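Q: What structure does this chain adopt?
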Amino acid sequence: MPRTPPRVETVSDAHEGRLEYALWQVNRTLLKTLDDELKPLGLTMGQFGALNRLAARGPMSAADLARDAGMRPQTVAQSVTVLLKAGHVHRRRHPVHKRVLLIELTDQGRRVWEDAERRVGAVERRIREALGERCHQDMCRDAWKIVDAFGGLPDEAGDG
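A:
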């Protein structure tokens, strides 16, 4: 049976009936679930994100990867270092701009990304099943409305 917001008994309970509180709880739940799914692969969400972008867009420089993800270059560098040591990515020189090092998936990295993508896809299917197709589509659309209402995605690279 779906959980409904509790009746507000006191001022301290009032936050439980607020959308921002519900979304915070959804965020916490999804982050833990995704972390649990990726942990057996030795991946964090940030590392999966890097593999995902490389799988979708092909080889990229660390700077381009950071810009594309809206993250600090240092944050991307940490993820890339771990992925390099694990053999999931390797670096090669850009064919035109020889000073630029491109990061690309290795065959092993592609296999790990495919496994991670299946695991993350299973989480998405659970969400769809919990909500139903129509509600899932509406909630996805409305979530992006909220992002837009607050000025778009936060840009970690621009944060302090």
